[in-house]
Amino acid sequence: MRVKSIVWGVLFLLLGGAAQGEGRLTLLFAYENKANPPYYLAEQEGEGLGVTPDLLQRVGQRIGFDVKFVRVPWLRALKLLEANKVDGVFHASFKVERLAFGAYPMRDGTVDESRKVMQQSYFLYKPKGSSLAWNGLEFSALDGGVGVDAGYAIIKDLKKLGVVVQENSSTQANMEMLLKQRVAGVVTLENMADAVLDAQREVFQEIVKVQPPIKTKAYYLMLSHRLTQQTPQLAEQIWNVSRDIRLSAEYRNLLHAYLH
User: Fold this and answer.
1) What is the CATH number assigned to the segment(s) 2-117+219-259?
2) Does this model's pTM top 0.90?
3) Which CATH class is domain 119-217?
C-alpha cells in the first residue's frame, strides 16, 4: 500500500498541466494504457515507447520545451484534459462533442486534417465460418451484438447503423467475448487488434479480419483549453511542427525503425 501511495502521489504531482522547471517549460501528455503498435507500444509508463511519443519528443526539442507522459484509460485521459490536468492527449479522432474537453487543430472553422498525427482504420473481426459480413456500407447476417472498446468514436457510427454495441474494457476482452460467443463480432482498431491476435495466435486462431475497413479516421493531438487560450501561438507551433515532422523523411525513418 505504501508503494502504491507513493506512485499515486507522484502521478498527482505530474497532473498539474504545464509547468516550469529550471526556467524551461514542461508539457504533460496523456495517452492510452493499451498497446497500439507502432504508435505506442508496451502497456507501461515511459517515454519513447512508440512513434507518437517519439514524435512529440522531437516537437519539444525543436520548439524548446520538455515532454512528460502519463498513461491512463482513454476516457480518463479525456477527463484529465477537460480539467486542464494534462496539456494534451493523443490519439483523438474528431468528434464535435469532444470540443468540450479540449481543442483540435482547426482551419476556417473545421478540423484541419493536414495537421493530424496519424490515421487508422477500424475493422470487423469474426469467427472463422461465420456468415457475418460487411460490404463497406452495411452489415449482413449480423445475429447479435458487436464488441467495441469503451469510449471509442466508432460506437456512434455503429449505433447509427442500428448495431447493438457492447462496450468492453479492451481489445483483449472483446476478443475473449467473441471466442465465448457472447458477441457476434468485434469492431476495433486494426493495429491494436492485429497485435493482440499475433501475440496469441494459438488462442485466437479462429478469429479472422473482414475486409473492407468499417471506417478510416484521422487522429489528432488534442490540446487543453488552458494551453490554447493562454499560449495560442505555442499551441499552433506544436500542431504545425508535428505536421512538418510527420511529412518529412525523418518521420518515415522513425516509422520504419519501429516497424522493423
Assistant:
1) 3.40.190.10
2) no
3) alpha beta
